[in-house]
Amino acid sequence: MAPSALFGRLRRFPVSVVVTLTAVAFAVSARMAHAEPDFPHHPPVACLALVAVILTTVVAERSLGSLRTLVIGVGAPLLAVGATLLTVTIGSAFGEAHAEFAVGQPLFAPSTVAAALLGAASAAMPMQRRWRVRVALWVVVLTLVLFAGHGSDLARALATLLGTAAGAFVVRRASRPDPRSTRDTVSARTTVVSALIALGAGTLVTLVVPDPDGVLSIFAAAMSDRSVVVVGVLLLCAAWLVQRGSRIGIALATGVLVTLTVVLADVFVIEPMHDDSLQWQGLGLDALEWQVTLLGAWLVPAAVLLTVLALRGRLVRARFRAAGPHRDDLVGMLRDGDAGTLGHMGTWHGNATWTHPGGLGAVAYRVRGDVALTVSDPACAAADRADVVAAFTAFCERNGWVPAFTSVHEPVREILAAEGWTALPVGVESVLDVTTFDLRGKKRQDLRTASNRADREGTRDEWTTFCALDDGQRAEVEAICTHWAADRRLPEMGFTLGGFRELDDPDVRLMLAVAEDGHVTAVTSWLPVYEHGTLTGYTLDVMRRGEDGMPGVMEFLIARTALRAREAGLTTISLSGTPLAAHAGARTLVARGSLLIARVLEPVYGFRSLQRFKEKFGARHEPLWIVVPTPLHVPRVARALASAYVPGLRPKHLWALRQAHRGAAAARGVAASRS
After folding, report:
1. Dist. CA 147–CA 216, nearest whole Å
2. pLDDT for the residue numbered 463
3. Cα-Cα-Cα-Cα dihedral sign, residues 372, 378, 379, 384
């Protein structure tokens, strides 16, 4: 980047530049180690706080502007510190114990600025991201208030409140309810997980902060340090398992909370009552407050326990059942709605169908692990697409599944991207406009050659269905398909890639290459594409060539299908998606990773060769995406995709892949030596 361009970019974010320089200068000063009052003499914590200030300033300035970022970043912490100082002064004057303890404590910390700016910047984020950021922020802030209980913790909480309110006021749209929001449907799981994280992390915080004085810091007084560590770690593990919908997580959380409730009740309630030390008469404000705190300490884990038990049915991941009674609903909506070119794949064996409660549409999906993979776009009208997507997302979250919209087109990606979802490229679909298709021109030379050769050899095309074939032709089609699959070193791929099973469908058309003697030499299958009740085209699925099929037979069959579609008044045929094909102009790390995987799998599945084959027809390219809630879900979704596409993959197949690479390398060497 040229120095002038870099300088121009820095001028757009003056507040971020100044904050960064100030943070660097402060980091090398002697006061840096004491910057965070909760963690004095811990320079790494102070460094993390300064980094958080820089990052939140950058985020806020990009979304809110320089002036608003400066006002909120300075004003919210100052008001919070002032309000905290006033509260501590008044409380200590009345003898309130926590206020007296906070007198003289430092009230400002760099993390106060970061919390205020993050709360403000969240207002400009998409709905889902805004909601997640605010939940995470408030869990951290309130955990420190309740367990550490220092003056700086109260100031941080007030700054977060002021920053969030200021951001909502500036952006205005943040506080407007979204009718498609899934907030109500996920609040049960999120509430339980947040409470478990707060209790688990809070108990651990009491071991590392000096003189904890939060109202829940007395948890540590009832247990040894080792017990505190065990309880904290177990609660955090339970939160992680509950988030994934595991029954083990619910059982673990229940066991730990029951134990914690009993121990706290025994130490702070039963024993004092037995010793007659629980007195209510003649107590001052300080003693009365302490007595109430002791009595109420066991109520917090008890309340979380009751919440877990009451909501356990909504926390467990549901079991997936393929197919079901809704398949006919999907077929009807595929015809009447607009499910795109890949919609018919949702009717295949192994998929389930979810229908919108209001009948607006349907989504075909299958579950692998805890991930619900959709089969391309929803089957619905374009105007209802956003509502159907939101309702399906809520359905998945109620069942403990991570929704992953797989092989979707640009309209679905745009809907989810506006909500803060993460979109990754997974392939490219080749769509051919048959209204202008013919075999003329230099670019169609290979197609003309294949067609002319078929005419010379007496090979004809036959447009039919599997049900219409006689027994002999069915056996020939099956032999071609199964022989092709048996030749693969790795298992045949599935999910959105059909095989012989998917041919037996009255809605699926076959284009066969039939030799002069009447036997079948090649097979292609075509899935119907409807739009608002009208058949508009077909999508290529199966392509299988027999051992005696002529060279160029696939070009011949596809070209003849395109010409038949044009004569029938259709508009397009899709050559389907090519997995792992890079999008035009893509230079991202993910796109490069897709190319690398495609190169590794090329000797077995031939994705790159398939894409080059499709180039012959002059089709336009449409990107296909997989869209997931956050980048953190990508590894889980990747494992689910691998399981869906290659369910029979075993370690032995990795050796077969290595052998295929060695064979391909040897073949290239022989070809090079001959040339």
Report:
1. 5
2. 92
3. positive
Residue 285: CA count within 13 A, CB half-sphere: 10
Q: How many CB atoms lie within 10 A of CB 568?
A: 12
**Cα distance between residue 163 and residue 133, in whole Å:** 13
299: closest CA among 272, 269, 335, 324? Answer: 269
Angstrom distance (rounded) from CA 544 to CA 563: 20
Sign of the torsion formed by the C-alpha atoms of 72, 74, 79 and 81: positive
Q: Among all chains, which residue has been given the structure tokens 């979802």?
A: 421
Q: Say if pTM beats, i.e. exceeds, 0.70.
A: yes
Residues in the chain: 675
Query: Which ranges of the chain have pLDDT less than 50?
Result: 174-177, 179-186, 325, 584-585, 594, 598, 600-605, 652-653, 655-657, 660-661, 664, 668, 670-671
Structure tokens at 470: 């006689």
pLDDT in tens, 402-452: 999 998 999 999 999 888 888 888 888 888 888 888 888 777 888 888 888
Q: Are 426 and 594 in contact (CB under 8 A)?
A: yes
* H or E segment and range at residue 543: strand 534-545
End-to-end CA distance of the chain: 44
The residue among 373, 381, 372 whose CA lies nearest residue 411 is 381
Does the CA dihedral 111-112-113-114 come out positive or negative?
positive
